[in-house]
Amino acid sequence: MNTGFCVVLAFSIFLVVHTDSISPKVYEEPGDYIIGGLLPVLEENCLFLRELETLHRLEAMAYAVRQINNRSDILPNITLGFRIYDTCSREPTTVAHTTLFIPDASINLGATASCEDPFKEWKPVIGVVGTEKSSTAKAAAQLLGVYKIPLLSFFATAQELDDKIRYPYFLRMIPSDKLQVKAVVALMEEFGWNYVSVIYSSDSYGRDALASFQEELTFKYTMCIGVQFEIDTNTPSVVVDIAVREILARADTAKVVILFTQANHANKVLESMTRMNAKGKIQIIGSDGWGMSMGEIKKGNREMARGAIKTQLPDEEDLDFEDYFIDLMIANDSTLPGYKNPWLDQYKVKYALDCVVGHGCDKVYGRGFSEPSGVSRVIDAVRVYAYALDEMVWDYCNATTNSSPPCNISNLVVEGETFFQHMTAVIQPGSRYSSMFAHSSGRVMQKRYELEVIQEHNETQYELKRIGIWDLLHKLTITEPNIPWGVPGDQGEFSSPPSYCSKPCEPGYIKTGIGERQCCWECTPCGQRDIVVNETVCSPCQDREVPDQSRLSCEPVEPLYIHWEDPVAIVLVVITSLGVVATSLAFLVYVRNNRHPLIKASSRELSYLMLLGVLLCYGMVFAFFGRPSVATCYVIRAGFMLGFTFTYAPLLTRANRIYRIFKAGKRSTKRPSFISPWSQVVMSLVLILIQLVISTAWHIKEPPAPVEKVPQPGQVELMCNISNDEMIISLSYNVILVVLCSVHAFITRKVPNNYNESRFISLSVYTTLVIWLAFIPCYFLIPGAVVQLVVMAVALIISGSITLAFMFFPKLYAVHFVAEDHVHAAATYREPGSLTNSKAAGEGSSSDKLAALRRDLTSTARTLIRSSSVAPTTMNVASQIDLRGDLALTDNVIQQRNFQSLTPTQALDPNDMIS
Question: pTM of the entire structure?
Fold first, then answer.
């Protein structure tokens, strides 16, 4: 195994010497204990200097060591030194220079072979700071781990480096890529991006970031990767252009591109985007691998990068270092420290030229450059080594001399495993060194990222502006409401751009045609009563529910009933109110003219009952409006049927009375029974009581209450629990009353109309029958409680109005507009030979005789009624004659006797005078 490892070392050295054709430059300073450094100074070709920020970090390590040496509280009487090599950001160069930190004594190849350092005599190091790239960090960590030499990186973020079996002596000052990827995913969730393209470096940094990103999306089925492109240093520009062109082809909806790349790869992509005229079409999201400072982005690419959102590791400003660095850049060689940076002169020349043409002076002589350069992390890395060594010295002094430093440490051996344990303890929060780190609150391993946007500072300069923070505990917080996006969204300049494969479906649509990753779909409408479940399933609501406005959940249906403000209710209320007023006026007229002959002749008591029924019909209409309650249900179920019964029971009683009177008058002079006014009232009340008993029985069987009915799914109606059986039985009783009224009206059609009002009764009941023939089918066949209530209300209004129109309005007209002496109606007979027959109509003398005889009979009847000299039989009959019927009686007598030898006494025949 030792032989194989030696071969690897030799091959690595061969690559450095022969492939790169350079001699290793070293920036070093001697000391009692040496801290190694592996930092990238030159670009990957090992020929050209990188950005100025590289020099910042290089000098930051030297500055931190000198700071420790100037302190008396840390490592007293001990001097630290450093030895820094360039990695060129390449693994072969990194491995070759890493071997220079391995002590000769630890390489034992046996008696016949040895590996020698070809460059110079080495001095052992206690640990190494570096490297920046994850790929070079893995190469160095594996090699150093064999010899238990710690490697502490301030930028390497690959998740693979957390493997303690492969990299047992690796530590870093930053969280892994896995957390950075979480921050990127949180950014996608925040702005609703579910379809993005990814460009990643072909090294471990890019591939590990992509793997972590894909892992994060494993459980986020609504997020997908569109274009996926790997780039390295040797990727031809034309290939990059093809990838960018493919991204642009989807940029109408998928505008976000994530770059998990190194700085040089990012610049290559930005150059291609500039060539493809992608500015304003693509929104770039960058990782911390590039654009840590504006110096990492080439000047020609900065306009394309404007508006890009980047994840950045939080850093701190170090003003003391900035003073140190500025002095270093403007100092003459004679004033420089004794151990000179071998690359310093080259940087001075390069950036002096930049400053002459007006660029870069702010980076050399300005302020604030230490934070974006990551200087504080390099300084903290050096401090970790110093504090861990100080801890070992304390333990050694306590163990050997039972005292605190300084003490004689000539025999102190910095053993790698023990030293690494001290390093691990030092960086933990709460250690006694926590407050000595550059980062606030001593949080060296802060698990957070800052979000920054690249924006234009002036016409020629660009800057990074913080817009938010992501940390493991508090997740994402956007602190800047007006973000200058690279691609403005649809809502304005500061709205986020869209990035999706398919447009979100509108409410009530589901996604179809999707695969395992739910990013691209078609929108298919659900049914009107369906809600959308998980955006992919149409689920119907229950019968008593309807979808809410968002179509995501079902909500109970608000029961339907007739509100007072509904148009139909307003119309019915107006009509009903007019009916109530008319009924009330009719009642008042009847009361005021209670002894008017025509009022007396119309069975006043029964008329009052009928008016009460009409008023009940109209009043019932008001109970149909508003939210049903138990009280209103009692009123509706009982009152609806009683309103009709109160109207037609007295009417039937009146018609039956007329029929019995004239039928009995033809057979005998004996007065028929139960024809007095109060007898008629009792008979009417008995008929009404029957309906009341029917309603009461149904109320006991099924107590009135409001119930909800579902005539169709999604529609709930609130109504009283009127069963069809109850309605049929109660209606049947009322129909029987109306039919009997019709029968009596038909039978009495030939009696004098001015006595029994048979014509008006006929018109009333026949019209009512027609209305009911329409009402009953409508009620039982039309679905919907609201419509049924309207039908019931209309039936009540029409029934009441018909009764008023035919049974009361003619009398009211006659009372007010016809003289009392002329209140009569022509008696009519439909039989051949009657007075109204066409044959008799031509006899001119008949009219004169009829009028004269009517006057004589009327006078005689009145005289007999008031006289006590009339014979007992005649007086007995006459006493039964109500004045309300005298005119009608006269006409009756005239018709029955047909003018045949009538005498006043015969005109008052008992058979004719029964009223």
Answer: 0.57
